[in-house]
Design brief:
716 residues, alpha/beta, eight-stranded mixed β-barrel, five-stranded mixed β-sheet, 24 helices, 55% helix, rod-shaped, disordered C terminus
């Protein structure tokens, strides 16, 4: 507060002193000008008086008149007596013209612009001309001293000047050089004194302000400089004050906080940008390089290798039956398994080796082993050994396997994409050979790949070409062995390959998404055929992909409405895998299907992970006992116990049971004794065309000759 008072006092002193000094200097200047003007007017009065008097005393009008001499003499005498005043007379144009016409010597035209201005506007002029004050005034006939009759008679008779016209004028110039010099000295002294007083006042104010206000301001300035240099932890003093300094300090704190926030935002932005750059070249789940980075690195290494010196090998590692893990335990569980496998592979390869995730369950490894085939084989065995031990994920113990395929640069291909493709083919061959193996690429694998691609293209056209057909496997009552139902199974008769087994084309259909239109065709065809067998039910497998379609319920409803069969005659078979992910949605789908009136069966019961939980939560009508348990009857006592337990469990839950894969009379006898409801298998009949089923219904015969033959390639 004291600093503010001092500042106000200083400003007030300056506001009073400066105008007072300026006013004093202005008054002094005006006094000098007024005195000079009075002096000039007095000289002009004297000049006019002498002029008029001399003219009045003239005895005649002629040249060399004593009046003119008297006027000139008076002006010379006045000029000698007053060196700082200069006087002169100037004539109006009419008088000048007269004088020139008479060849008069005393012509006095206007000397300068001021004289001409007097003649032009007939008014007195007062102007500064350098260091002189100039006063000029007009002489008008009939006014002032020029009103004397003799003056009027003289000018009117000789020059025809009328009353009120200009005769001429008088000018006086007062030299103020000395006065202005004195005034300037005074001005300098007053300004100097004012500056000294003002400086002393400001110095005093500065000292007081420095002690009371400037020191905190300096601290704030230093803090501002530190903050501008990035030292955001600089302390800020004075924020607690309730004056302007406190306001500045609080504003600076707000500014510093804004800088801190901006710095954090920039750091977060940089981190996000770095993360985005990382994710463009790395897998988000495992943190490994992604396929794009792997391909670019392989290309660079192949180019650096040159003409084939050294050994550059690409490995593709597939997780065996990984889809089964996702279907049974869920995608989160599968993601955690992939992360564990990625860590195990990275730990098993030499340090610095590039390991990447190429696809859902496929990893890539880039090796440079200097052409040592033994080292490559040992490394691949070590990688396969990674899957020899189980791992725990949460409360689940997981057993998994990996299969490895390899391709060597230049020996197998020079193209990066081909190298990766060939290694992937070799890995698939390892899976087909039983898994947990290493296979190196051979040319016949490429031929097999082309053959699979051709088969995929043929399958796309098979539905429209009418090459697909349905065979039906009878389902019998275990007690009476009466035909009660059929299971619809898809068959493909290729125009050049002949019969293509479902184990060959169904995986292709599932991998390419063709299983959805194929499944719709199977549903419509089987229901249409069932209209001709009113006493039989028809069972249809719904693949996991088909079950997860959002329109599956509407598809079944439309099929029932169009074909006209009773919903209770349609049984849809699903596996546990379709229920694991999005359980609530799966439960809603099952309940919506049952609301249509169709029956729901759990296929391959007993081979999953959580069957009992699903029986409690999902409304199944039938449990289908997997063929692996039936096949073990007579050889494995535990199989008999498991089948007996399944039948007892189903009966307690008011569900039917159907045993698959019945091949022998002994298996039939055990199932009858255990209380199984229905059975199907080669003991009763193979899958067969619809005409054969119609004939068996008509004849009442079911079992075929040669029923003990081994299953052929068309078994579904």
């Amino acid at each position: 507060m004291s600093a503010a008072i001092l500042l106000v006092v200083g400003i007030a002193l300056a506001a009073i002193q400066i105008p007072a000094m300026v006013f004093e200097l202005w008054v002094e200047r005006e006094n000098i000008a007024a005195a000079a003007e009075q002096q000039a007017d007095a000289a002009l009065d004297m000049l006019e008086a002498v002029h008029i008097q001399s003219m009045l005393n003239r005895g005649r009008v002629s040249d060399n008149d004593p009046a003119i001499d008297t006027l000139n003499g008076s002006m010379d005498q006045f000029s000698r007596a007053n060196a700082d005043v200069r006087l002169w007379v100037f004539m109006a144009p009419r008088v000048v013209d007269y004088q020139r016409s008479q060849f008069r010597a005393e012509i006095e035209p206007p000397q300068d612009e001021v004289d001409r201005a007097v003649l032009a506007d007939r008014r007195r002029q007062v102007v500064f001309d350098g260091d002189s004050l100039r006063v000029s005034r007009p002489v008008i006939l009939g006014e002032g001293r020029a009103a004397h009759p003799k003056c009027a008679a003289c000018h009117s008779s000789m020059m025809q000047v009328k009353q009120g016209e200009l005769i001429g004028g008088y000018s006086a110039a007062v030299d103020l050089s000395h006065e202005w010099a004195v005034w300037r000295t005074y001005l300098f002294e007053r300004v100097l004194v004012g500056i000294l007083i003002l400086g002393a006042t400001l110095a005093l104010i500065y000292v007081m302000l420095h002690r009371t206000a400037l020191r905190p301001l300096q601290r704030l300035t230093c803090a501002t400089d530190d903050i501008s240099r990035g030292r955001l932890d600089t302390p800020i003093e004075g924020a607690e004050r309730r004056d302007e300094i406190g306001s500045l300090a609080r504003s600076l704190e707000v500014f510093r906080h804004a800088l801190i926030v901006r710095e954090r935002l920039e750091q977060e932005k940089e981190a996000a940008t770095s993360q985005a750059r990382f994710l463009t070249s790395h897998d988000a789940l495992t943190g490994l390089p992604n396929r794009g980075l792997f391909v670019r690195t392989v290309e660079r290494e192949v180019e650096a290798t040159g003409s084939g010196t050294g050994s550059l090998t690409v490995l593709c590692i597939d997780v065996d039956h990984f889809k089964r893990v996702n279907d049974t335990l869920g995608f989160r569980f599968g993601d955690e398994l992939l992360k564990r496998i990625a860590q195990m592979i990275s730990a098993a390869v030499p340090e610095g080796t590039l390991v990447a995730r190429l696809g859902a369950d496929e990893f890539g490894v880039l090796l440079r082993l200097g052409g040592d085939d033994g080292a490559l084989t040992d490394l691949c065995r070590a990688l396969v050994a990674v899957s020899d031990r189980s791992i725990w994920i949460g409360a689940e113990e997981v057993h998994f396997g990996i299969s490895i395929g390899g391709a060597t640069a230049f020996a197998d291909s020079r193209e990066t994409e081909e190298l990766i493709q060939f290694a992937s083919l070799a890995a698939h061959r390892a899976i087909q050979d039983g898994g947990r193996l290493y296979r190196h690429f051979t040319p016949d694998l490429n031929a097999a790949m082309r053959d699979r691609h051709t088969l995929e293209q043929d399958l796309r056209a098979a539905l429209d070409a009418g090459q697909l057909e349905l065979h039906y496997q009878p389902v019998v009552d275990c007690t009476s062995e009466k035909l009660v139902a059929v299971e619809a199974l898809m068959r493909w008769h290729h125009p050049s390959r002949g019969w293509v087994g479902p184990t060959t084309f169904i995986p292709i259909a599932e991998a390419t998404g063709l299983i959805v239109p194929l499944g719709r065709w199977l549903l419509w065809t089987a229901c249409s055929q069932a209209r001709f067998w009113p006493e039989l039910s028809v069972a249809i497998n719904l693949s996991p992909i088909q079950f997860r379609q959002p329109d599956v319920v509407e598809t079944v409803r439309a099929c029932l409405a169009e074909t006209g069969i009773e919903p209770s005659r349609l049984e849809l078979e699903i596996t546990e895998g379709v229920l694991l992910e999005r359980t609530e949605e799966a439960m809603a789908t099952v309940r919506a299907l049952r609301a249509l009136g169709v029956r729901i069966a759990m296929d391959d019961f007993g081979t999953g992970y959580s069957s009992l939980g699903y029986l409690r939560n999902f409304p199944f009508d039938t449990l289908k006992i997997d063929r692996s348990f039936v096949a073990a009857l007579g050889d494995d006592p535990s199989a008999e116990a498991i089948i007996g337990a399944i039948i007892a469990l189903a009966r307690s839950l008011n569900m039917k049971t159907t045993a698959e894969g019945v091949e022998t009379a002994a298996q039939r006898d055990f199932l009858q004794a255990a209380g199984c409801d229905h059975a199907q298998g080669f003991y009763y009949a193979r899958p067969q065309p619809p005409l054969s089923i119609t004939q068996k219904i008509a004849s009442g015969t079911l079992r075929e000759q040669g029923r003990a033959r081994a299953p052929d390639s068309l078994t579904a």
